[in-house]
Amino acid sequence: MKIRHILPALTAVAALALVGCTNTDGVERTTADAAVLDGIEPDPAAVELLPEEVRESGVLRVGINPNYPPNEYKNAEGEPVGWGVDLGDAVAAKLGLEAQWEDMSFDSIIPRIQEGALDMSSSSFTDTVERQKSVDFINYLNAGSQWAAAVGQDVDPEHACGLTVAVKATTVQEQDELPARSAKCVADGEEPIDILVLDQQPEVTQAVVDGRAVAFSADSPISGDAALQLPDKIELVGEMFDAAPYGLVTPKDSEMTRAVQAAVQSLMDDGTYLEILTSAGVEAGALTTATINAGEN
């Protein structure tokens, strides 16, 4: 699926309904005003760093797995939206390009970048040392993991042995955090954590709402959004942990990496970046410098 669009402003309403092929949770959230994105002027220094073939194409091919609200998800028309999409559109504008969003599974994005089928991804990738072996990350947000549970459940992430905990497939929580917690339970002579792995974050949240799981673990912006949208059903439990940077993904050691870094820094310097984050309520994780491969775990 390839989509070119300018995002409209959305208003927030609270609801949860998994809606067919759109992969949305049915909640419309506030994102950056269209006028902000429309007003972005290309940064000549960033444009100059682009690979010639990308600059001449006029298009930035961006991979996305849009089922991770509020960062990236789909609206009722099936278009990718969210503050992560706003940021991707803004980076494209700074580079004098138009973002062409390509919807795919999360675990296929890095291989597609490696083979040259994508120029960038804006899809809530945590910058890890292991992933840095394959691609580069232009860091744009500090986030961590955060548990959320059904309201009234007595859940402690540090003592979750024997409980059913939901998680989205291929995330750091599914691949690293929960297996490590479960292994510790077994080593301590307790029951392992029953890890309920689901493909989409709205399904993960719904599993807690309908009682199939007592809690879920996700990136802190995602857990915080669930608690905000469903205050009578979902609440945050425990503290945020394992803080690490999100990064826009680009080909390893490439001209594209330097161009995207320059574009993000330009957005930080002119205030557009902070406006995008503030519109979504995630400004607490804002950075002032667009680093490359700052993840240390």
UniProtKB/TrEMBL annotation:
Solute-binding protein family 3/N-terminal domain residues: 59-280
Alphabetical keyword list: Signal
Protein name: ABC transporter substrate-binding protein
Alphabetical list of CDD domains matching this protein: PBP2_MidA_like
Name of one Pfam family that matches: SBP_bac_3
First and last residue of the signal peptide: 1-17
